[in-house]
Each structure stands twice: as structure tokens, then as C-alpha cells.
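pasting for ref. prot 1 ->
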Amino acid sequence: MSLDTAKVRTPPESRESTPLVSVVVLNWNGLEDTLECLESLEKCTWDNLDIIVVDNGSTDGSAAALAKTFPGIRLIRSHSNRGYAGGNNLGLQDALARGADFVWILNNDTVVRPDAVGWLVARMLEDVRIGVCGSTLLYFDQPDTVQAYAGASYNPWTTRTQMIGQAVAFDPFRIDHVGVEERLDMVSGAAMFVRREFVEAVGLMCEDYFLFFEELDWVARAGGRFRLAWAPRSVVMHKEGRVSGAHRVASRRSRQADYYSIRSRFLYTRRHVPWALPILWWTLLVVLANRIRRRQVGRIPLLVNAALDGVRAATATNQRPARSDDRWTRDAWR
């Protein structure tokens, strides 16, 4: 079924109007996952849907393969890997220039249910104060288990985020909608549905973060001007950490995920919660002790350098919401 001919079977609330929804999917050497993600988006029942794929400097030929397989989807090619924020910012800029009312930033390692967009739009239309809305994220390999209800809470005393609902059995008939939204401090970047006015007021994502904490930084910069929300019946399956190397089990994280999780945490804390830096340094000592216990002594220099790099990045530069001078090309696939 093509996007042009898809029959609308979205929730009644979303039929009052048909806002333009642009979906931004970031690809970096992830052809197989991106293809599966796009196939699920083709089945979406929202009739005013624009799909943008940003190829983030892939070296495996995936951009050409995607263009051949999906000739009707827009492609933006970056000449380098700009990280999560930098790559998605290219898509955000393109979506807003094309008149999008909402932009769905979607990881390429996700598979969405056909009515997922409709439920997100319906929740957004309920309250114009909502700036960012999240879906119900389920583990792809455990589709009855929750990864997150929309996103996470943030505790400055531990400088850590905690996914809401993580690892519980998904029961759509027993959901504390209000309670979840009261706990939300960030919407997961795996599936982040953003109102146009939010981006216009707050700006693009800060590119000082290459991976992790971009979503929390975005909300912090909003300064309480917008609400965060959750659309429980918008369901997205997530193959956790396929690109970033992140994993809920610390011993299975990649070196890249280890480095940027520490660097970005120090960067965010130094910039937004500087009083918590002593706590964070103490937490790092605990992390290092745990790595020694797990016989990952080789990771210790990496983690220490990550912390120092994060502090330096926060003190040496201003926030960079976009890098419009970078070379990139935009292709309308035919």
C-alpha cells in the first residue's frame, strides 16, 4: 500500500482536520533496519504524511539502496555523520520549510503500528500547550514488554534518567495516563512527536550533544513554556541500541555508547544543573568501580576522558542549535 492511496483509519478525534505530519528517519549504515521502518510507515493510515530520510554520512551505500527501493520518499544526504541532533536537525529544517504542522522524529530501528500517527495527532489536538508527545515504546524482540511510556523522568540528585514503565508487561487497559505525564521530564528520542510551534519557539536541537541527552536539553531550553504528553495507543516497537550501541545491560554497551552517555551527562549537568556536578563526579567513581568488578578495566580511561570532554564542551562553547553552513544535499526521490 502506498502513502498516496492509503485509506484513513485514524481515531475520530484526528478526523477534525488533517495536519501535515512529517516523519524524519535518520539512517547511518543501517539499511536493513531503515527499510523495515519505512515499510511500516508505508502502512500508516494518516493521509497527510510526508516522509523524510536523512542519511547521516553512511559509507555502506545504503542511501542509494533506499532511493531505489522507496522512489517516492524525500532524501537528505549529509556528507558527514553529524550525530543524532545534527542529522535530525536537517530533517526538521526541511520539514518546517515544507509546512509541516507536526514532525515525528523516529529512530530507524523502530517499527510503527498503522494507527500510531493518528493517536499522536489526536493527543496533540486535545491541548495546544503540548509541545512534544511520545508513544508507547515496546521492545521489538519482546513486544509484550514496555521499554518506555513516552519517555523518562530525570532526577538531578542522581543525574540520571529513568524510563517510565520500563520492563513492565504492556496492558493497554490498565494505564495511568495522567500519572505518566506528571512524571515526564523528556520524551524518548526514539519516537518524538513535536509541534511546529515548539521548534519555532525553542529552536532546533543542540548539536553539542552527539548522542544522548539531546531530548532532555531541548525540554530544559523550553523553560516550561510547553507541556509534555503521551499517546498510550500510539505503539512503536524499538530494537534497542541498534545504531547507538546503547543497551539496558551495562556490560553489553558499545564503547561509543559508553563514551557519549558519560560525556553528554556531564555536558548537560554542567550546563543546566551545575550544582549537581560534585554528585556526578562521585557517581562516576561508582561506575568505574563497577567496571573494575566486571573486568572492564580497559574502559576506565575512556570514561574518564568522556567526563572531562563533557565539562570542557559545556564551558568552552555556546549551545549550537544548528550548523547551517555545513554542506548537505537534498534529493526529492522520484
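and prot 2 ->
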Amino acid sequence: MMIMSNTLPPNESDPALQPGSDQHTTAEQPAPVVPPAYGADPALPTAPTSLAHKNGFGLAAVIIGAVALLFAFIPAVNVFAVILALVGVILGVIGLTRKTKPTTKALIGTILSGVAAILAVIMIVVYAAVFVRAIDESMPSVETSETAVPNPEDASTEAPAEEPAAEDVGTRKNPAAIGTTVTMTQAGADTWEVTPGAPNLNAVDLVAAANQFNDPAPAGYQWAVLPLHVAYVGSDSATPFVDIRVSFVGADGKTYEEYNELASGYVDGQLSSLNEMYSGASGDGNVLILVPSANIEQGVWAISPLFGDPYFFKAQ
């Protein structure tokens, strides 16, 4: 008699391992792959990326404010610094109104530009005051050795006609005599002592002999030469040609200087040939100017510092 066993082989007892079983198919099949949409680049992510918020107006305000702050301390340039700072303030305010953007840089740029504008205005006023003061202090003063000696015999006679005061000597209406020494000042300190010598109001032959390339004087004009003796009395050093200006004011009221558009000339020993001088040094130089021939004796020589009013001398 055979006894039947209910035990099945391991492969047959598990329904999931039987061929055709749904469980076996589900366990071994991979997940379905969804192809990309038509026209999409599979290399690019389909999810949107987040961009960092930036405030371009705020950054521009910071840069412009920094540049304006630097320019505020430079003379003449600080005028443009005011305009630049105002632009920075406007950009900073615009950056502050952009609520969706960070406002930190916009606030810094607005404050920086505002400070730069205020400093630029202050420095403009300061530099202008210093410049005006320097011009006022550089006005030349005259020293003369002529002293009026009272005469007792004139006490009982009629008083003479009123003469110009001593401080009026050296004006165009009352020019000083040739040979008078004038002391020039700069920033309140003495710099040069200048003494004009006897001028040559008709130096045509002198100019022609000095250089063959000199231009002849045009019709109605003539070359005039004024010799100068200069002595530097300042504490540092200076150059005569830079610090001392010489011109001729004709009877027509016009000013004539060394360089003109009508003719060019050169003579030996010009003032421009003197180099830098230190305290106690002196030298002699000539100034050549093309002047009008009409009523030349009624003209005057004008000698002035680089910054300051001229001191006038007689034509001869």
C-alpha cells in the first residue's frame, strides 16, 4: 500500500514562483520609463531654478557715491563730484523703492552719495575762500627811496597844487617812474623785487640783428624792449618767467603781451632765459613786445605777479 505525500517541491509550493503567476511578473518587471516631451532637451532639468535677487540700482549708487566722495577733495573736480553724488542719491532712492529686491546696498549708496555731496559743497567753499585770500594777499606793494623834505620857506607861500598820494603811485593814471623798485608778494610774503631799466621803444634794428628768422614789425607796430632786474627775496625758490608777467598798455587802452599773432621775435638775454632762483639770487632779462606805434609815449608798462594786480610804469 503506497502512502501519498502532500508535500510539494519548493518550486511548486510557492505560487509566486509558478510560471504565469501575476506575482512573479510584478516582481521582476522594471518601472515604466516616461519619455521626455516632444521638443524638450533631455539634458536640461525640467524643474525651474531659483535666481538670487539683485538690486542693480543699489550697487550703482554705492559705486557712484564712493567715486563722488573721492572727487570731493580735489579742487575744481569737486564741482563734478556734486553732480555725481546727486545721481548716486537718485539711484539709491530708486533702489530703496524696489521692495522685491534687497535694499541694503541701496541704503548704503544713498547715505554715501549724500555725504559726498555735502563734503563736495563744503570743499568748494573752502577752496574758493583760500583762492580769493591768496589773490588779495598777492597784490604788489611798492618801496621807493624818494622822501619829500619840507621846506620852511614854503610855509608862508601859497599851498601848491594837490599831488597824488604816495599810495596812488603805480596806477595807470599815475604810473611810477622807470627805475622804481616794486616788491611783489604772494600769499602775504615778499617774493620778488623788480626794477625796470631804460626801455627801447624802437628796437627794430636790435630784433633784426638778434636773429635772422625774426619777423619784421607789421605796419603800424614796432618792437619795444624793456630790461628788468629781478631779485628773489622769498624763502624757497621760484622762476622769474613763471612768477612775473610783463605787458604794455597802449594809448588805445589795449594790452599787448610778449606773444602775439602778428609777428614773432627774439632778442638775446630774454627774461625767459633765467632759470630757477633761490633766496638772495638776482638776474637781468629783457622783455620783447610788439606795440602800436601811434602815441607810444602815452602808453604804460604793466608788471604784475602771477596772481595779483599790475603795477604801472611810464613808457620811458
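Residues 82 and 117 are 5 Å apart (CA to CA).
The chain has seven helices and eleven strands.
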